[in-house]
Amino acid sequence: MLYTARMTAPDAPAPHAQDLAPYVRQGRADLAALVALESVSAQGRMLPETADAVTALLEAEGFTVRRSPGQVAPILLAEAGEGDTTLLIYNHYDVQPETPAELWDSPPFTLTERDGRLYGRGVSDDKGELVSRLAAVRAVRAAHGGTLPLRVRWLIEGEEEVGSPSIAAFVEAHAADLQADGCWWEFGSISEEGRPVVSLGLKGIVCLELRCRVSDSDLHSSLGAVVDNPLYRLSRAIASMRDDAGRVTIPGFYDAVRAPGPVDLDALASLPDPRGPLAGSYGVRGFLGDADAREANRRTNFEPALNVNGLHGGYGDAGSKTVLPASGFAKIDFRLVPDQDPAEIVRLLRAHLDAQGLHDIEVVELESHEHAARSDVAHPFVQAALAAARDSSLQEPVVHPSAGGSGPMHPFVQHLGVACVAMGIGNVGGRVHAPNENIRVQDFERGVRFGVTFLERLARTSFRCP
Amino acid sequence: MLYTARMTAPDAPAPHAQDLAPYVRQGRADLAALVALESVSAQGRMLPETADAVTALLEAEGFTVRRSPGQVAPILLAEAGEGDTTLLIYNHYDVQPETPAELWDSPPFTLTERDGRLYGRGVSDDKGELVSRLAAVRAVRAAHGGTLPLRVRWLIEGEEEVGSPSIAAFVEAHAADLQADGCWWEFGSISEEGRPVVSLGLKGIVCLELRCRVSDSDLHSSLGAVVDNPLYRLSRAIASMRDDAGRVTIPGFYDAVRAPGPVDLDALASLPDPRGPLAGSYGVRGFLGDADAREANRRTNFEPALNVNGLHGGYGDAGSKTVLPASGFAKIDFRLVPDQDPAEIVRLLRAHLDAQGLHDIEVVELESHEHAARSDVAHPFVQAALAAARDSSLQEPVVHPSAGGSGPMHPFVQHLGVACVAMGIGNVGGRVHAPNENIRVQDFERGVRFGVTFLERLARTSFRCP
């Protein structure tokens, strides 16, 4: 692939010269309003209402917003501005469930500032990202007399946390309206030292539920001498699917994995050690296989993984109850890398369970699956994003070939052919998907400043062939 | 051991001649009152209140009741009557938790008649047994002009469902007050065909909780590439502890097991197939190792077993949540046979987990442990109980060398030296420890009739050496 880009205007004034405080303030007010909307897609809560609120925010900044039905929640496609460059932005307005709600130190759906951080479900993933970008758009419009000096196409869905079941078809159906010079992906983070942490790819994902039932109703546990136990069966299934080092033991699981190339592996050398911050922020006891820094980064960027999200069955209250439960279930996810195919993974799992004699373990597909995707660090759009990150932070960005997380990047990269850059305001202690999700107050400001710098740079760049 | 017994009076009138209807009616009223008391020992609910209610019922029938503190609930020791024979009765007034409460078809603490059955927590285990025996005492007293023609010592505790932590010490401390010619154990059942199902032994039990924690708080599941998963660790632990055929794979687990003798094994031949009723009443899908009838009975009577009572961690609501849980736990029980030692089993489990590299699995002892115990079918007290069962039911009793369940029989057999017979009013569809616990209306009547027949026979028998 041949990439080109040239600057069409001289550098704008240094981004630190502009006073962004009013835009940060308004962005925080927008964030409080969105966090208050309990847009839990897994439970179908308040999704149309949140789409309405996001639409109103976009329309107030001059965007034309088209709303399309998704399988779970409305999909918004907004457009504003004019110029040589077209930027596609992807965000989502849905959030993960707040459970276990009792572990939050402040109400999950109330934006709360404490000790230099803002807390609330979605404050990082992904409402904080969304409104910090909107604040940047607002600032750039103001600096340009009320018009955006580039075309921004903004795709905002409400089904990301349930696997974006509608987005691949939507991208195919609206390919012309989504054409762009690059895509600013929904997330990103900032290190403890203030370095932008950028990801150029995402893992794929398969979310499944394993179910086992041995009887219609619970039994006295003395019958465990003759009746099998659904929690043993589930445990056997899970224990059979990986080893103690974290390697998946389902036959064929690694067959399609595209091995990282020399450039990919070289990138690992410059990545900071993720283990210290995880131990510090989350009290993580240890790491799989006692990985060193390079190995931990290799696993995060390039290794598929199996994770158990939840496992439930039988008695769980105080003391003991000698019962043989009728049934149990486990929720699992596989994180995939290029070129693993989610449907094939489900097929391999079923074959594995059958080969293990675990015919009684039912496999239920919980949500639509996603392929992994990666973009090339040499792409000029990626380079423009990195330059903007460097300029706005005055630090060298950390560049991950792939994040450990997932999202519907594959149709953007494969179908639209755009490069995707994930750059945002998360932090390693941000407790995304967990109680006390948070962002640092300072990172929200940094996010707005990066956005302004990025948009200004893109407006002065042409990605067309000369 | 030398047993003797001789009848000291001619046979009383056939037990079916007496009209027991008034005693059955009053017994059902007593049962309704006791079921309404939520005496869940695992949760410390309403235990003194229930002890009060039981005391009042006993005192109304002429019993002197002494109340002693237990670790969890009061222990009652009641005595009434005079004669050559002393019968010890053991019951308990505590019950299992009612969870999952939503699966009950009527309120768990309201005695409810439906389709020929009485429903409610404890209606079978063990309040129904207790009040049916009290109804028999009442009828026998009435028939004998208001006095009991034998001495009855009745030990009723409120900690049975949490492993009877106080009973062994209580039995030792009150051995003189508990001396008897035999002990009528707290439970028993009646087959579909109306045959009394008698057990002469109980398994031992060890109740444990396995805990695993990998971090202070939940993590995004993408970190499953580098951080281990507590539910995988628990699954690995459980899967390592038994095989698919149900055999425990902890090294040394079977070392102390006393093999059944030829008489024990012969007894298996006369036991009915337990599988049909389990499939019919509970919809049991299949049986461990596709056991035949003899093997199913051998396992129930003579094999120790591992059972998982509950396993919980992470997300369990609708849809999916891609979280890496901070922790999880499993509640398990081991059912033991003579001469396995509960403390040694805990030690073997810890050694096994360590040998498996599962040092991070914490083992917590949930409640006091029990040794297995068995009595000899040839003992004259046992023979008297079987004769009474035969006379009152007009059918041949089914005799299990050991039940699959557990209880504190060991101190009675070992320390007091009494033979124990478990004979009562349960049924295979009784859902003991589960939602919709029930007894058949007819079995309650049968229980009262058996009690009258048994007490009358004991009153006419001398177990002393001539």
TrEMBL record, chains A, B:
UniProt GO cellular component terms: cytosol
Query: What InterPro entries does the annotation carry?
Result: Cyt/Met_Dipeptidase (IPR051458), Peptidase_M20 (IPR002933), Peptidase_M20_dimer (IPR011650)
Tell me the GO molecular function terms.
Answer: metal ion binding; peptidase activity; succinyl-diaminopimelate desuccinylase activity
Sorted keywords for this record are: Hydrolase, Metal-binding, Protease
Q: Name one GO biological process term.
A: proteolysis
Q: List each copy of the Peptidase M20 dimerisation domain by range.
A: 201-358
Q: Identify this protein by name.
A: Peptidase M20
Q: Which organism is it from?
A: Deinococcus aquiradiocola
The beginning of the lineage is: Bacteria, Thermotogati, Deinococcota, Deinococci, Deinococcales
